[in-house]
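Same chain as my last thread, 199 residues:
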Amino acid sequence: MMQLFTTSSVPPGERLAYWTDMICDVYVQLDCDAAERVGFRGSIRSHRLAQLDLSVVDSVAQRVLRTPRQISRAAEDYFLVSIQTRGRGIVSQDGRDALLQPGDFALYDSTRPYELGFAGRFQQMVLMLPGSQLRSMVRETDRLTASAVNGREGAGHLMISMLQTLQRDIGGLQPASATAVANGIIDILVAGLHTLPAS
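reply #2:
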């Protein structure tokens, strides 16, 4: 089932606070800051697919932070994958910064601090999956965070094409197929991560 969250029905002066609450509900506990507070706008379309959450974020310039304080208050253990579809974004974690252009994606871990930055209007698809699941498939994940994977070729391109198709057709997917599709997406994600050089 698709859920739509949007600031469009919120008074302009309350939109950034509403957005911060919204991203905390959909993802993990976060702080958000934006230069344009009164004119702030954004939406999230979120789908649940077996053990995966797939969402599409469409918003304006902002800075999103996962801090040690939030981690100590809410020990959520997820990996998230930001797939840039419009505009540019930066994912920062573990001393690295991944610049994402349309088609690129990067992994980050909710158990450690991270920052997402967007200088202008952007759109991303975001995958969220249990931390224990990815750690059982990929060793030393801390070496792979905040490293851009090229989504214009190889496994990265295949994953993005698959997600774009899934996003359009998820409403017609039979429940019995959901686990197999989710596992296929995770397998392709792992293949894309294996293209990264160990740092």
